[in-house]
Each structure stands twice: as structure tokens, then as C-alpha cells.
Amino acid sequence: MSSLKTETHRAASPRLGRHLTRLSALVSSLLHSDSVLLHYSCAVIGVVLMTILRYELNPVLHDRAPFTLFFIAVVFSAWIGGVGSGAVTVLLSAIAVWYFFIPPTNSFTSAKSTDTGTLIVFLGVGILISMIGEAQRRSRERVEEARRETHSILESIADGFFAIDRDDNLIYVNQAAGHLTGRASAGMSARKWQEVFAEILGGEAEDRFCATRSQQASLEYQNFVSAESRWFHIKLYPADKGGLAVYFQDITVTKMAQEALRDSEQKLATTLRSIGDAVITTDKSGCITFLNPVAERLTGWSLAEAVGRSLQEVFVIVSEQSREPVEDPVAKVIQTRSVQGLASDTLLLSRNGEEYPIDDSAAPIYSGADMIGIVLVFRDFTARRQEIRALQESEERFRVLAEAMPQFVWVADLEGILQYLNQRWTDYTGQTLEQTGPHTQESVIHPEDAPEMYSRWNDSRASGADYEFEFRCRSASDGIYRWFLARSIPVKDSDGTILRWVGTSTNIDAQKRAEDEIISLNTRLHLTVYESSHRIKNQFQTLAATVDMALLDGGEEVPAAALRRVGAQIRTLSVLQDMLTLESKADTGGVLQTLSSRALLTKVLEAMKQAPYGERIAYKVAEVELSVKAGTALALIMNETVTNALKHGKQGVEVTLEVEGDMGTLEICDDGPGFPADFDPDTSANTGLELIQVLASHDLGGTVRYENREQGGGRVAVSFPL
């Protein structure tokens, strides 16, 4: 029987353990649940279960201690959900007890006054229990939050971490530890640390663990894993109940950096001894710790003599102008903790009596956030100063020359960015060097010239060839575009490498306009000579015809009337030649500047009236002052049109010059057949018409209209500004 009970107990123990485990998990889930509905559901269920249990025990308990069992529900609800859930349990329990278990049952009335007191006591105690449960719940939450934060921190750090109990069993391993060992941290719990971390912690790890436990003091050391060529830094901390907390970090990179630092320091020391600049280092109080050979030569102090001395004793500097001591740059660095430099006229007084113009800079040396010393770098500036002075003198000569030149003078870098513009550019365009750029230049360069100008400039920069281009540039004073010739050549060093571009822009507007005027004058001269030749030939033909007719009519004797017509033709020719002579005088600086329109045209018309059929001419000429050029052009136009009108007309020719405002209009009308329907003065191969068009548009700046009159005949109207 005893053995049977033992076997039964052994069989029941695992089942009981499983049930307790499940119950513990359920309770834990309820404790850590944030669901309000679940908490209040537990309160209701607890009241229902206690009601059923009390009802089952009612035959034994009767009406004694009706609230006792319900305290269990209150404690459970308050423990799970805090004061809210506990208060609901208290309220529901009070209702259930009052209705079901206090006589008379199934009613909310009571026959005893003591029942009311018992109810009040229950409510008070129940609320107190709920408040205690709330405090415990919050305490659990804080503990759980701290546990989660600790776990989060341990999982987020880059160091490996694990904790062991007094029996060397692993109880926690973070992910970094698993990563450093190349194993999953999740499968390491409950194993011995020697199985996982023995190689990383080293052969003496167990002795160090024992020392940490016995002395209850932290311990750290480094271990090299030769198989993997890795260094680890390990820290051991004692924990409760004989446990240990172990941090370890892969410091292979740090070790390599330290080794590289040692190599770098050695290389730096070699470099400082070999560079051409002088170098002095001091500690943070300004006492010298190092001089390189150049500093030894310039100061006159050897390294052995200078070490430990103050900088002011070894590095003696004064102003070249005043010979007064210059402020110690190291003292300024110590005060400001920033890089400091010397004035440009600083002299170093060597221990051996030599003087050196120097430039230098002093900078703080930091170790982390702490300044541990100062480094002073300086050089003999004698040769460089001479070069700078020569360069400054050269630049000054260039600026004086550039500002004295009448052209725009400019300097650009390899990218075409302007570095210098003389004052001529600013005076003409209104743009300073700072205001002048690719976009602002477009506002002063003529839109028709800008694309080709920039294209050629880019081609020259790319090829290194000389640049030349004619362009129009707008003046800021009057807004007029004038012609300029831009030229630029590259400035090269001794190796042929282009350093910069220097260029000029010369005003060639007068030259361009003179060229245009010469072309125009040549054209007009050609037409005038041609027309004059044509006109003279016609006049001589007319004279010849008149003479021939007179001979036919009069035999050997020429009538006086015929001779008069010949004379009229000669006078007309003379007037035309006089007008050409007047135009020539006006164009070559003669004293005649203006002509009376009435006097000029009347003289021509009166001369033409002496020619055959000239008596048919009628005219009305308004008075206005004309330039010699305009008057000549107008007379030539009138002579050509009147001659044609006399040739084609029947009875009369009307000539009118009218002036209205600042416009003048010359009209010649005849009563002939008029102009053909397909007449086009631009395409008609007629020298006289071409002359009329050129004179009207170029010399008068006006227009010509050819039209037929309603009453018959043709009209030629020349409109021009006065």
C-alpha cells in the first residue's frame, strides 16, 4: 500500500507541476496585461465564482460571515487590475451578498441593523484592499519597466555581456555576446560559460572569476585570441548570490590603431625633423618640449638647450618697424584656445645676432577636450617677402597701365571668371567687377552678338588660341549700342600651362560707322555719276535733236526759238551740275549748310520750263529750310519725275511741295496714261527709278508712292521727315 501511494504521488507530481506552471503562466499574463476589459472581466468572474461557492457552502455557514469568501475575489481583482478592478469587485460582491445571502434572501431589504454595518465595513476594507493592490500593481509595473529597460540597454550595447550564477551556469547572454562568439545567444542559457566563452576569456579566466567572487571587487584584463588574431578587453563584476556579470569587447581595431599611432608618431617625428619649416612645440604652460633642426638654426638654440625653457626666452620676436616686442603667439593660443598668427612685419632675433623676417601660426594641441600643448610653425620669409614685393610692384604697374588705357581691360581665370576690370568698363556699362558676370553681361551685350561671342570665347579657352571678336555693347549713359573689338591672349607659365587670360576691348564704333558711310557714299556716288552721265547724254541728245529740227525747218538758218530751247536745255544741265557741286561741298566741309526749298526747286523748275514742253509745268512750293544733302536729293528726284512726266503727259505737269508738322511731301502729277497695272518700282529695270528709291530712303529717310489718279494720269508722292 505504501509503495502504491508513493507511485501515485510520483505520478501525480508531474501533473501537478504542469498545472501549477500553466496557472502561473495564466496569472503572469493577467498581471502583465494592459487590457481594461480583461481586468474587469476577471472582477465579474471572480464575483460569480465566489457567489457559487458561497451558495454551495450556505447549508453549512447559513447567514454567518456572508462577506468572507468575497474578500478572496477582491484581493485577486485588486492584484490583477488595481483599484478600478478591485472597486468593481467590491461593489458587485456587496450587491451579490446583500441580495442572495442576507436574510431575507432574494431581496435588497434587511431585517437587522448590524447587516448594514457589516456591509459598510466590507466596502471600506474592500476599497482599502483595492488601493493596496493598485500600489502593488504599479510597483510591479515599475519593476517590469526597469527590467525591460535593462534588457533593452544590454541588447543595444556593442559590448558582449553575460551573467552566470554561483554554479557557473549562464543565466543571460545578450545578442552582442552571441555575435562576438559567432553563435546564437538564444541557445546559450543554462549552459556552462566554459562551453561558450572559454577561448575569449583566456586560460586564466577561472582564477580571475574566483578572485572577483572572493574579493567582491571588479576586475578587468585583456586577452589575445591567437587563432583569430583578435584582442578582447574583459571586465568582471561581482553579483548577488555568488553570481558574476561579465562584459567583454573586441578591441582588435583599437589595438591596431594604437600600433598605427605609434608608427605615425615616429613618422611625424621624422617628418618634423626633415621639413623646411621651423617647428617648436610647448606644453600647455608654454615651456618648450621640441625643436626641429630648422628651428634650431633660426633661433640659435639647440634642442638640448631649449627643452624646458619658456618660449619667450628662445623665440624672441619684435616688430620690424617699431622694434617693440611682439605679443607671444603661444600666450594668445593659451588664452583663446584657437589658431593665432603673427603680424606681417615680425622679425625673429636669433641667439647668434641674426634677424629673420618670419610668418608663423600657433595652434593648440588637444587630447580629447583637454589642451595639452601648443605647436608653433614658422619660416624664414626673406626670399618670399622679396617675391611678394616684386609681385605687388608688377601688379601695381599693370593696374596703372590698365587704368590709363582707353580700352576696357580685363583679366579672367581658367574658367572664364572675371578677376579684374578697369574703371573704363564701369564708367561705360555702369557695372562693377562684383556686378559683372555671365548673366549681367547679357544685359549690355547686343542680343545678336552674345551667342557667337560666348561660343568663340569658350572655344578659345578650350583650345588655348588667341581670342578676337567684334561686338556691340550698350552704354549706361545713353543706352546706345556701340561697336567694340575684343582681343584676349592666354598668360602661360614656363611649362606652357595657361594661368589666366588678359584681354582688351577697343571702341571701334567710329571706324565701323565710317566704313558704313564710305560704302553708302560709294553707292550714291556710283548712282549719281551714272545718272549724271545718263542725264547729260539725254540733254545732249535733246540739244542735237533740237538743232537737227531747226536745220530741217529753217534750212541753212537756225530760228531764234530753236536756239532758245537749246539754251534752256544747257541751263537745266548747268543747274543740275551746280547742285551736285553743292552736295560735294557739304560732304567735304564746305560753308553751305542749308538751302531754301522754294529757292532751290523754283530755280530748277524755271530752268526746266525753258526746255521743250517746259511751259506745261505748273508748281507750288512751300518754304522750308533743307540740308544741302536733302535739297540735292529732292531736286534730283523732282528733275527725274518731271522729265518723265513731260515725256508721257499730254497737257500739263503739276509740282507741289507741302509741309505739315515735321513732314514734307513732294507730289508730281501728269495727265498721261498713268502707270501700268503690273508696275513695280522695286523690280523695274530703270536707272531713274532706282535713283529715286535710293535718294528718298537714304538721303531723305522717307518713302515713295507711285499711283494713278482718278481723273487720269499718274502721281509720284515722296514723303520725308524734316
List keywords for this structure.
about 725 residues, alpha+beta, seven-stranded antiparallel sheet, five-stranded antiparallel sheet, about 50% helix, disordered N terminus
Number of helices: 22
Give the % helix: 40-55%
Number of strands: 24
Biggest sheet, open or closed, and with what strands and sense? 7 strands, antiparallel
* Rg from Cα: 60 Å
Overall geometry comes to elongated
Beta-strand percentage range: 15-25%
* Poorly predicted tracts of residues: 1-14, 16-21
What can be said about this structure in brief?
By secondary structure, the chain is α+β, with helices and mostly antiparallel strands. Strands 6, 7, 8, 9, 10, 11 and 12 form a seven-stranded antiparallel β-sheet that branches.
